[in-house]
Design brief:
The termini are far apart. The protein is built from 25 helices and nine strands. The strands form two sheets. It has a five-stranded mixed sheet with strand order 1-3-2-4-5. A four-stranded parallel sheet has the order 7-6-8-9. The chain has about 425 residues and is α/β, with parallel strands linked by helices. Helix content is about 55%, strand content about 10%.
């Protein structure tokens, strides 16, 4: 591929329906920071009328890839494919400034590797336990850091020894008569920094009659790399993951992180001549999607909670999964679901977006948190680890506290009695 596909570019009729749905257009009101404007830039690159300059690259970098425009578009423009292909083109043809290359390299040398994330968790423990974090934050030293490093420091979650040593079982048996054999994609960041989501997923699937297999040696699915234009790296991760799962006979492949799920379902397109990839993608289900399609077997205990439902972009826009988590939570006695105003808008996390575009991510995240706080909920339901980290960071900055949990954790609390985050 030398540039974005002409056919997909020409599908855009420039109607402008995407503009009010685009978070970066809301930030600045700049046409080139809207989907329509970026498609014009893609056309210029495709025809050779435009060169890949720092300004052009910056407009593509500032896109979250949230896919709100895909949902809004009446012409069915595949902006998701276009921005993915364009970012790969940018990474192949544009040489970034030294510090930008260094920062991105640091991110992708750590975040897609669970083993390295364990080491990072251990360093964070030392950072907190020794009082260095307190000193950095209260002395004002953190203000001397570059914006990207300040963002990385602010986003760090609470860690314990469990984050360093947590392991998943190879197999969990179904309770009662088996209905399905399910393979679980363990993920990367969530596996280490929010292991309770995988634990809850295993318990709920088992309680609902599923044997769960967790193939060993799993690494990244490739989503983070693909969303950042690192195409070959992403495809390498995908091949390895498919190879791990090919050794296990499973009926369904379940994933509990929204961004990973949309990417896994796209393997067939990414490997158009690989029948194994198409078969794998056809088995992939988000955990909300899968459980909502099962008739409930495990009894639900009441939870007297007012829950705000946050729609992760790659769940609502990329996978079109909105009703299923709501159905699962509404099936719990005592739960009152409340909608977050303007829920179609991104929170600013968007993979590694908040690590490479911190100022834009902050503007977008502030709007999201305004809307979340307005619900006066007891708990936030969020089906993507990056969203949870982003929203919690901004809440902390405001001195506010609102616990967050994955919908499957809330369901698990009702089924097994496992305490929710507080």
């Amino acid at each position: 591929m030398t540039a974005p596909q002409r056919e997909l570019i020409d599908d855009c009729v420039h109607c402008g329906f995407c503009l009010p749905h685009c978070p970066t257009y809301q930030n600045w009101g700049e046409e080139m920071d809207s989907p329509r404007g970026r498609i014009d830039l893609m056309r210029g690159l495709r025809t050779g009328q435009m060169a890949m300059t720092p300004t052009v690259a910056a407009h593509f970098d500032r896109c979250l890839g949230c896919m709100a425009c895909v949902t809004a578009c009446p012409s069915g423009v595949r902006y998701d494919v276009l921005i993915e292909e364009t970012r790969a083109y940018v990474e192949r043809t544009y040489r970034r400034a030294f510090w930008d290359r260094l920062h991105r390299s640091m991110i992708f040398q750590i975040f897609p590797y669970p083993g390295r994330l364990r080491v990072m968790a251990a360093f964070l423990l030392v950072y907190v336990w020794t009082g260095i974090r307190w000193l950095v934050r209260h002395s004002g030293l953190v203000k001397l850091l570059p914006p990207r490093m300040r963002q990385l420091e602010a986003l760090q979650p609470a860690v314990t020894l469990r984050n360093v040593f947590v392991r998943l079982p190879a197999r969990v048996a179904a309770v009662g008569e088996k209905r399905f054999t399910v393979g679980l994609v363990a993920g990367c960041v969530q596996r280490i920094f929010n292991p309770g989501v995988n634990d809850a997923t295993l318990r709920v699937l088992s309680a609902e009659g599923c044997d769960v297999i967790v193939p060993g040696g799993q690494g990244c699915c490739g989503a983070l790399s693909m969303h950042a234009g690192r195409e070959e790296e992403s495809l390498s991760f995908a091949r390895d993951l498919m190879e791990r799962f090919s050794r296990e006979p499973v009926d369904i492949v379940v994933i509990n992180a929204a961004g990973c799920g949309s990417h896994l379902k796209d393997y067939g397109r990414l490997f158009p001549r690989d029948e194994r990839a198409k078969a794998f993608a056809a088995k992939v289900r988000d955990v909300n999607e899968f459980l909502a399609a099962l008739s409930p077997r495990a009894p639900r205990r009441p939870l007297q909670l007012r829950i705000a439902m946050h729609d992760a972009c790659h769940l609502a826009h990329a996978q079109r999964i909105k009703a299923q988590p709501r159905a699962l939570l509404s099936g719990i006695p005592g739960v009152t679901l409340v909608e977050v105003p303007d829920s179609e808008q991104c929170c600013g996390s968007a993979g590694v977006y908040n690590l490479v575009q911190p100022e834009s991510a902050e503007q977008i995240g502030q709007r999201k948190v305004d809307n979340v706080v307005s619900t006066k909920a007891d708990l936030l339901a969020s089906a993507n680890p990056g969203c949870t980290l982003q929203i919690q960071k901004i809440l902390r900055q405001r001195g506010k506290h609102l616990p967050a949990a994955h919908p499957v954790e809330i369901l698990d609390a009702s089924i097994s009695g496992t305490p929710l985050p507080s």
